Amino acid sequence: MGEIPKKQMAMVIQKTGGPVEYKEIDVPTPGANEVLINIKYSGVCHTDLHAVNGDWPLPTKLPLVGGHEGAGVVVAKGDLVQDIEIGEHAGVKWINGSCLACDFCQQSDEPLCPKATLSGYTVDGTFQQYCVANAAHVARLHKDIPLDAVAPVLCAGITVYKGLKESGARPGQTVAIVGAGGGLGSLAQQYAKAMGLRTIAIDAGDEKKKMCLEQLGSYAFIDFTKSENVAKDVQAATEDGLGPHAVILVATAEKPFQQAAEYVRPRGTVVFIGLPAGAYVRAPVFESVVKMITIRASYVGNRKDTSEALDFYRRGVIKCPFKTVGLSELQSVYDLMHKGEIAGRYVVDTSK
Ligand SMILES: [Zn+2]
Ligand SMILES: [Zn+2]
């Protein structure tokens, strides 16, 4: 293990709205219960763009180093850290740390901890070469997992896996994935399949249709731009015509959130995961009652969800296509996101 440098390169925003600047900053020092990770690769998530733009109802720290899908090597650790060693591979995810003592932490709901710190949002994240994180919360990465390819799994993969668990759907049951052709949606279909669920993909366009049916394992595709009645078509795609047992909403528009209660199966569960800006949900009370449906929301995974989601990935049943660019080119990735031209995930290489 080489010397830890005093300075490093990072992408930093000084004020909300950006710009994001490639500059030299100090290497942070881990606290007693933290590790210092030499980040090799970091995924770029839409949340990072929200952090730059400040359009979520939660302020970021400033100046800010964004990023929350970082994979690398542990290079230093605090005195209290005992269960992870220098040289091991680890991932930094959205939940950077939590108190581990509050009512929520005690029940493994650490994403709900009032003292949770958020990587690349309330604490500096992974768009730097050296990042600190609470040792209890870093993802343990087996050495046979490639650090570039796993980066997007650390946010998107864990998030959809958690949502599928929250849906309560059991092996053999059917789940509709709304926004199936996007990054979260394509992972959701693969996790669902690996969990023994059958999936109906809902999205738009022939390219996405082909991808969902031929590569991602869905048995049906509903194109909401071509369907005259999405609810009817989704129900008709289930064997008995009564609708899917669960609906996973990873869409970025509000309308599908309004529709899901109409076509979910009686006793079924609608799970909100996507975060369309400023969106609200209305559901018909009468139908909701007489169908006894559940509408719930799912945030990010806890530590156990993280290790389970990574274990699926390690077994090769989850593929997440990505492109790699240098850390210094992060702005070009944000520009593509702004234009809605992102296909697949981007991963930044912190060495350039
Ligand atoms: Zn993310
Ligand atoms: Zn807590």
TrEMBL record:
<protein>
    <submittedName>
        <fullName>Alcohol dehydrogenase</fullName>
        <ecNumber>1.1.1.1</ecNumber>
    </submittedName>
</protein>
<keyword id="KW-0560">Oxidoreductase</keyword>
